[in-house]
Specification:
Elements (H helix, E strand, L loop, with lengths): L17 H45 L4 E3 L4 E3 L11 H11 L11 H9 L20 H6 L2
Antiparallel strand pairs: 1-2
Length: 146
């Protein structure tokens, strides 16, 4: 039985003017630099929030409370069970033997696959795929302070 291949449409390439691209690249660099500066401002706040959360977890641990209400809001202690693998060999053997693939996340560690392929090894079931992206160098903009 023959199978029909799906017809793939070629993406129409837009006609680009160099001036438009220069404008877009400059706008992108400015926005990414602004985003980096804002993230830098957030880091101390994120650290303080983490410290306050950790302190509250410790306080709940020594108090008999499981929640508290203030004029600004409320906070409650929540416990949930999470699972970590203690014995990878046993875990993989079980998943393979019982065909419980739902226990595994789909994906590969890119660096591990690349290292093996570069060293002449094969990784069954894995194939390369080209992904388009944009690489930006912000060195000149950083120096200019923009």
């Amino acid at each position: 039985m023959a199978t029909a291949k799906k017809a793939t449409k070629k993406r129409a390439k837009p006609k680009a003017k160099v001036e438009d691209m220069v404008t877009h690249v400059d706008q992108l660099i400015k926005m990414e630099l602004k985003l980096e500066r804002e993230r830098g401002k957030l880091k101390p706040l994120e650290e303080e929030v983490k410290k306050l959360r950790d302190d509250l977890i410790a306080l709940y641990g020594v108090s008999k409370l499981d929640g508290i209400k203030t004029k600004l809001g409320s906070c409650s202690k929540v416990e949930r069970t999470v699972y970590k693998v203690a014995d990878w060999d046993a875990f993989f053997a079980y998943a393979r033997r019982t065909k419980n693939q739902d226990l595994l996340q789909q994906g590969v560690t890119q660096a591990a696959v690349r290292d093996r392929l570069e060293n002449g090894q094969t990784v069954p079931g894995v194939e390369p795929m080209q992904v388009e992206s944009i690489r930006i160098n912000k060195t000149a903009a950083r120096k200019a302070g923009k």
